[in-house]
Write a structure and sequence with these properties.
- This protein is of the alpha+beta class.
- About 25% of the residues lie in helices and about 25% in strands.
- The protein is built from 15 helices and 39 strands.
- The strands form ten sheets. The chain has a nine-stranded parallel β-sheet. A six-stranded antiparallel β-sheet has the order 28-29-30-35-32-33.
- α5 packs across α10.
- It is globular and about 70 Å long.
- The mean pLDDT is about 95.
- The structure holds alpha-D-glucopyranose.
- Alpha-D-glucopyranose binds next to loops.
């Protein structure tokens, strides 16, 4: 059951909810609204209440004990002291004696204090315009069913999650630093030479001419179309990046066209808003406008015509390095320190000045979007009031464009910034992480929270984006990445190489990557079913075993579908790990490209997991499909060679299809 409430004066209908309900005459069933506007919601939590949700954010699966802000942020190296990352996902479920889902539908900043100021109090605050609050409860009596039902109702309300083509579930190699055609060929050659499976290579900003969207640098990539054809014959897709900012350069076709159509965001004086990103000064498409979105989306054709079938959209919070105003302020501030002896106060004022030009709230306030208000009138609204939707609207532009260009065919698309709604148009990667061991666990914790909010096609930069990685970190991270829908190794230009061949001794990497391909039919099947049925692909143990007090607190294991439990190794030098199994299972040990199986009882176990080995568990009485023949890319997956892992008498509901058309439905499920 869903109740909808309105507080303040929401300016627009966000793009989140597709199956809307009318405003409720009931009062809130849980907690109270202490102030209608500025909005202040409060709930006194019971001792054992757990709070799930908030999608892409820091800290635990249980969000209690910290404060979080929904504000799409350019946050490289996100860690425990941050309270926002790249996405804004305002859905939580309170799980205790009472079980209730709350979705705070607003395009702007909203703050969640989940027992941080006071461990027993949950508050949600918003003071920008207005919000719609959806309260979701379940008639299911049993806790686990009620929890899943609430998530299901929410997911139904926000619409079906994006499904990429089958090849997008293959392994992707990326690096900011593949500068030329021969760099890309070299990567593919090394993967193939070492029998390391691979489906895609991502192209970062270096492929563009002067970092200009929808261009290819002809000096570095002289025959881009031919390169796509050559790689496609080897089962490899190129996935180019597209950035939000468009270089402000006279004569650059995309800029000129956008100027002519007047598609760019404006300042109050009517001039285009200009801020610097990679190419220097840029303008920004007003993705809230239908015509501007249509125009931007059509530009992807420049690359699809050359054979590209997948993209990643970046810097779309939007990330801003500086505006002229911000730069002037920073220089003035620097000037004010000149000749002075810096004391304890002034020194700490001085040090952050150069970074102060990035992503300033003053800049976000200085430009506007043209939107339709709730009465259908076009109004001009400053960006800060709509901030969390900007990246999502860029994803929408790309999706609408790509669907138009590739009629009836799926294309791969994932974005950095997101908010609920954009899960229908594309996936997300989890932004700039860092080569730290705890970042594996961070990814693990975000997976179920993101699934709750509709984001199924997701994964973090394997090996870590910032800082140089190590052989063991890449290998352990890959062993976890085997299970994540987006499996991409990506790193920054100033780090050591971390491709699967970069550390010598490639056999271990080959074995781990091969497991991904052996499991592809299962991962794809679980993914599509989760999307079609509005379910979570990954769940914390607490969702399925709420009465098991050990399982409830586990935050380093996950359930995958209804069959599998994963427990990755997240610690350096560990030779294995403790695993808690909430029921009897079959342990699968994958080593040297071979699986062995053994029964293992419910309870706590120390499991040996050497670096070259992946271990996972299948519930007793369940089976999963498994490809015996090792593939080098997804196009070689042979469904006729499927066997079963787990209980050989158990049947599995296998979803399979052609992998590239939009003909996707539950009728494609067969008993296997
Ligand atoms: C941003 C992206 C990162 C990319 C870099 C250069 O930091 O998050 O993935 O490599 O920009 O384009």
């Amino acid at each position: 059951m869903i109740n909808k409430f309105r507080f303040g004066n929401p300016i627009i209908q966000t793009d989140a909810v597709v199956n809307d309900v009318s405003l409720s005459k009931n009062s809130l069933g849980l907690g109270s609204v202490k102030s209608d506007w500025p909005f202040l919601f409060e709930y006194k939590m019971s001792k054992d209440d757990m709070i799930f949700g908030l999608g892409e954010n820091v800290r635990g699966i249980n969000k209690r004990g910290f404060h979080y802000t929904s504000w799409c942020s350019d946050k490289p190296n996100g860690n425990e002291s941050d309270s926002s990352l790249y996405g804004a996902h305002n859905f939580i479920v309170i799980f205790g004696e009472k079980i209730t889902g709350l979705y705070f539908d607003t395009p702007s900043k909203i703050e969640f204090d989940i027992g941080w100021s006071d461990y027993d109090t949950l508050t949600v605050k918003c003071d920008v315009d207005g919000i719609f609050l959806y309260e979701i409860t379940s008639s299911e009596n049993e806790k686990s069913r009620a929890l899943k039902d609430i998530v299901h109702q929410f997911r139904q309300m926000i619409g079906q999650s994006y499904i990429p083509p089958f090849w997008a579930f293959g392994y992707q190699q990326s690096r900011w630093g593949y500068r030329t055609e021969s760099d890309v060929r070299e990567v593919v050659k090394k993967y193939r030479e070492n029998n390391l499976p691979l489906d895609s290579v991502c192209l970062d900003i270096d492929y563009m001419e002067e970092f200009m969207d929808f261009t290819v640098d002809k000096a570095k990539f002289p025959a881009f179309k031919a390169l796509n054809e050559e790689l496609s014959a080897q089962g490899i897709h190129l996935i180019p990046i597209i950035d939000a900012g468009i270089k402000q350069k006279e004569g650059y076709e995309v800029y000129e066209e956008g100027k002519k159509g007047d598609y760019f965001c404006k300042k109050a004086d009517g001039s285009n808003f200009v801020a610097a990103v990679w190419p220097g000064k840029c303008v920004f498409t007003d993705f809230f406008r239908d015509d501007a979105r249509k125009w931007f989306g059509s530009k992807y054709k420049a690359l699809t015509d050359a054979g590209v079938e997948g993209f990643w959209n970046d810097m779309n919070e939007p990330a801003l390095f500086y505006t002229e105003d911000g730069l002037k302020q920073a220089f003035d501030k620097f000037e004010s320190f000149k000749g002075k002896e810096l004391d304890i106060n002034t020194f700490f004022e001085f040090t952050p000045v150069s970074g102060s030009t990035c992503n300033r709230i003053e800049d976000y306030k200085s430009f506007c979007h043209q939107v339709k208000d709730l009465n259908g009138n076009t109004v001009s609204v400053s960006h800060d009031r709509l901030h969390n939707m900007y990246g999502a609207m860029m994803t929408k532009a790309a999706r609408e464009g790509l669907d138009e260009i590739k009629k009836g065919k799926r294309t791969l698309l994932y974005s950095r910034a997101s908010c609920i709604g954009s899960h229908r148009y594309g996936g997300i990667w989890m932004g700039d992480n860092i080569a730290w061991w705890n970042n594996i666990e961070m990814e693990l914790k975000m997976l179920p929270s993101l699934n709750m909010c509709g984001f199924l096609y997701t994964g973090a930069d394997i090996g870590g984006f910032g800082d140089s990685s190590s052989r063991d970190l890449v290998l352990r991270w890959l062993a976890f990445g085997v299970f994540t829908p987006l499996m991409r190794n990506h790193a920054a230009w100033n780090t050591r190489n971390q491709e699967c061949y970069a550390f010598g001794e490639t056999e271990d990497f080959k074995s781990v990557l091969s497991l991904r391909y052996a499991l592809l039919p299962y991962i794809y099947s679980e993914f599509v079913k989760a999307s079609l049925k509005n379910e979570m692909m990954f769940r914390p143990l607490s969702f399925d075993y709420p009465e098991d007090k050990i399982a409830r607190d586990i935050e380093d294991e996950l359930l995958l579908g209804n069959e599998v439990l994963i427990a990755p190794v997240c610690k350096q030098n560990a030779k294995g790990r403790f695993v808690y199994l909430p029921e009897d299972m079959i342990q699968v040990t994958w080593k040297d490209c071979k699986a062995t199986q053994s029964s293992i009882e419910k309870g706590g176990h120390y499991i040996d997991i050497p670096e070259d080995t992946v271990v996972f568990f299948i519930k007793k009485g369940k089976s999963i499909p498994f490809c015996k023949k090792i593939a080098q890319s997804s196009k070689d997956i042979d469904y006729s060679s499927l066997t079963k892992l787990g209980d050989s008498d158990a049947t599995y509901e296998l979803y399979s299809d052609d992998g590239f058309t939009t003909d996707i439905s539950l009728k494609n499920i067969q008993k296997y």
